[in-house]
Predict the structure of Adenosylcobinamide kinase.
Amino acid sequence: METKSSIIFVTGGVRSGKSSFAERLAIEYAENEKADLHYIATAVHSDTEMQERIARHQQRRKKQKVKWNSHEQAVNIGELAGVFSKKDVILLDCLTVLVNNELFYKDQRQEMLELKLKRELIELSRSCRYLILVSNEVTYEMSSDPFVQNYCRLLNQLHYFLVQHAKEAYLVEFGIAKSKKGGKK
């Protein structure tokens, strides 16, 4: 990958404030670059809890004084690469849900899916100025379920790959973003 990466990786525990932090970061970059803001939503309206989470995220973005161009893409995110310009700021929320959708809904082999997602994420990052990726840390406590273990293993491999290729990487805990690579200290 090129040395001037456009990837900004934001991770943390569930409901740690990482999406809010990533949105603020995206807005800041878009304002600085005078760029359009895009939001790639990967969640699927699968149950009441997910519908409520989606609604909360949508309401929060509506309250912001910026225009978000929203794209709902639960799988095959690479298909969106042609939609963006080299000046755009993209926020993808979230990688954890995207991996779930690809792995469980489409029933793909883990090795093939890992390569596919890496290729699509790099393709997306090359189609814009900044690609901000939000993901969850899900392996603080490992499950004994082999399916969950495979999911966590795949997600960890993607996280490692993304941090290696990222311009900036953040860990968000309790609403506090800690820069681990690049970024603002």
